[in-house]
Design brief:
With about 300 residues, this protein is an alpha+beta fold. Helices cover about 50% and strands about 10% of the residues. The chain contains 12 helices and 6 strands. Strands 1-2-3-4-5-6 form a 6-stranded antiparallel β-sheet, sandwiched between helices. β2 and β3 form a beta hairpin. α8 packs across α9. The longest helix has 30 residues.
Length: about 300
């Protein structure tokens, strides 16, 4: 990596990246959550974490909320060396070719051709290519193998999506930010992103050039830590909505979740910013009293 991560935002982004990669590899949820919480704490911390390390050592880092022994050691490694061995290992293990080759019926050579010819970098993109016919155009594939891949991915990704749905449902039962808070963060994020006032990162997905185009903002509002960024999903790209759909990750004292905010098209909320899944609350927030809100097109 070779980058000196000494500012809080850079350290937080590295920890978020670790959490993302752990999630991709089906790591234990508590471990993923630990890195996300530590990233939230460090990203919002008013004092320099690097200076805290210099003055108090790793023991000082462990005084930060959500930062335990292993994460304190990871932060110390980042600050002192500009690198993180865990992150490097996870990135090596999650290279597109290795990920594609993990699907039965796709060996290393075929995985290389799929990645190079189609630009496929994830199982979700592989699933899309298997359904739209592009995969069968790759040498070594045919209708029979294409169907096999579709069936395997339906089972594998379906299991992950069902787990995510259960997690989302459980989050909905607990505390979450008011719609007005979420919409306020959404407005500030889009305004600052348009003005070029936010730090940008280079997402791994749908970014073959490695361009740092994705603005990221962290805010603390009404007691919630919120991280905002534009949606970088396949559907957002297909719908040309990567600068409309905004994903918010939020946490507060052990309660955490995420939501997507979009511009509604049609219905009583037409043209307004809407928190997906909370259209009824948005109607009340905007003072709209017409028929039931039409749910906007799904995003991240």
């Amino acid at each position: 990596m070779g980058v000196e991560w000494k500012d809080n935002i850079g350290i937080a982004d590295a920890l978020e990246r670790v959490a993302d990669l752990l999630e991709e590899q089906d790591a234990m949820p508590f471990r993923i959550s630990a890195y996300r919480k530590a990233a939230g704490t460090i990203g919002e911390w008013p004092e320099s974490v690097a200076e805290l390390l210099a003055s108090k050592g790793e023991a000082g880092l462990r005084e930060l909320p959500g930062v335990g022994k292993s994460i304190a050691a990871a932060v110390a490694e980042l600050v002192r060396t500009g690198q993180l061995g865990l992150l490097q290992r996870l990135e090596d293990e999650s290279s597109p070719e290795q990920l594609l080759a993990s699907v039965p019926g796709i060996g290393p050579e075929l995985a290389r051709r799929i990645h190079e010819e189609l630009g496929v970098r994830s199982l979700e993109e592989l699933e899309q290519a298997a359904h739209d016919g592009r995969l069968e155009a790759v040498e070594g594939f045919g209708p029979r193998r294409g169907q096999q891949v579709r069936d395997l991915l339906e089972s594998r990704l379906g299991r992950n999506r069902r787990g995510a749905a259960r997690k989302s449902a459980s989050q909905d039962e607990g505390p979450r930010p008011e719609v007005g808070v979420l919409l306020q963060v959404d407005e500030e994020y889009r305004r600052k992103a348009d003005a070029g006032a936010l730090r940008t990162i280079a997402p791994r997905r749908f970014n073959p050039s490695g361009e740092a185009w994705l603005p990221v903002m962290r805010r603390k509002l009404d007691g919630w830590n919120v991280r905002a960024l534009f949606s970088n999903t396949a559907m957002a790209h297909q719908q040309n909505a990567t600068h409309d759909w905004v994903v918010l990750y939020f946490d507060q004292e052990g309660d955490e979740g995420q939501c997507t905010i979009v511009t509604a098209h049609g219905g009583p909320l037409d043209g307004r910013r809407v928190v997906r899944g909370r259209e009824t609350e948005c109607l009340a927030y905007y003072g709209v009293e017409s028929e039931e809100a039409e749910a906007p097109q799904p995003g991240a």
